[in-house]
Amino acid sequence: MGKLSNEHLSKVEKYLDQHGLTFQPLRDELTDHLIQDLETRLEQGNSFDEAWGRIKGNIPEHHFKTLQKEIMETIDRRLNLSRGFTYLSLVLLFIMVVFKLLHFSLSGILLLAAFGAMIASLLTGSLSGVYHYKEKKGAFMVFGAVVGIMLFLVSFSFQILHLPGFEGLRIISVILLILFFPGLIVYFGTNRTSGENILIYLHKKHSPGIEQYLLYLFILAVTLSIALIAFGSTPDVAHILLVLAIGGAGLQYFALNWYGYQRRNWWQIMGLGLAFLCFVLPVLTGLSYMAKVVLTTCFYVIAGSIVLKKPDKMLNKRVLLFLMAFVFATYGLWALLNLNIIDESLNAVLFNLPFLGLLLSGLVYFIKHPLVKLYMMMVIGQYMFEYPYQLGWW
């Protein structure tokens, strides 16, 4: 009686299309409201055409577009605050590097301020997203992952400043990340309506800004690392930036894998989950160096294999396959060297400027392909992190 046919539902969807409604949470809410109103009128004895005509007649012209614009402007204002904190952290990190190189005493305070800006960015961005997605699907997982990242930043700060308690904070942060981040992978990988989630929408919208920030941080970290290696200075400042660049690129890599597959299957989801474990566990200080080497090598092999499997018609598969083979061979040899399976004299063959040049060439070649770009940023960041130690300079 009061139920709408598929033809009627199609008319409602077409009407919303004509009014330019693209923000999925608002569209879903309005669709439910219109359907409920229509069914009520049908139960009262109105025909569909009569009920639909009266409902449309009560809606002011451009009302939906105006409503959507107001909502999006509100979201943008909140996210501009988050974006502001993000770039403030980059500026503070740059100033911190300058102060550290000049041996000024405020470098530690600047580093803490940069971490504080990162935490503020995470909080404002996540709170805004959950607030505007009324059903709050996945909100608990989002906040769990955010808290895990925040605790890691705090533990990293404690470690750098040689404060007690950083090991406990690190363990808690890793536990939270392992509990919640793979949960997001499973949730978005198996939920058919994941594309309608506000987290997915906001991530798609602001991924270019996130990747631009990470690229700036990566360039600063790698440039500083090369300069310090060239002048024979200790790489502690560069290593701080490299850890942040690798960590940020890694999280963005996994976030990009929340969506985009035409056919998601459990093998891909399990691969991502395993890759995440291999990515996050090496930050635990209690693990042996050998265990960290094995986990790190496994991560780059699994993560690179996922990049190869992801469909992208714009990618040159032959060049990508060659690049991945080169990366796998590099980290395979690195693992064998650190496990004392092959002679350490081969370190000089693996860690040198031509090798670095090839890796950087791969990054430049795929700079317009986000997933490959992020993967190569992690690969090069890790390579630069290990470079001085593998050659026995420190």
Structure description:
With 394 residues, the protein is mostly helical. The chain has two domains: 6-59, no CATH class; 133-390, no CATH class. Helices cover 78% and strands 0% of the residues. The chain is built from 15 helices and no strands. The termini are far apart.
Topology order in helix (H) and strand (E) letters: HHHHHHHHHHHHHHH
Helical content band:
over 70%
Number of helices: 15
* Oligomerization category of the chains in this entry: single chain
Mean pLDDT: 81
Taking all Cα atoms into account, the compactness measure Rg is 25 Å
Low-confidence stretches: none
Task: Write down the domain tally.
Answer: 2
Give the structural class.
Answer: mainly alpha
Largest sheet: none
Based on DSSP secondary structure assignment, what is the total number of beta strands?
Answer: 0
Terminal Cα span: 80 Å
Brief digest:
With 394 residues, the protein is mainly α. 78% of the residues lie in helices and 0% in strands.
What's the arrangement of secondary structure elements?
Layout: H1 6-18, H2 24-43, H3 48-57, H4 63-101, H5 107-132, H6 139-160, H7 166-190, H8 198-231, H9 236-256, H10 266-280, H11 289-309, H12 317-338, H13 347-350, H14 353-365, H15 370-390
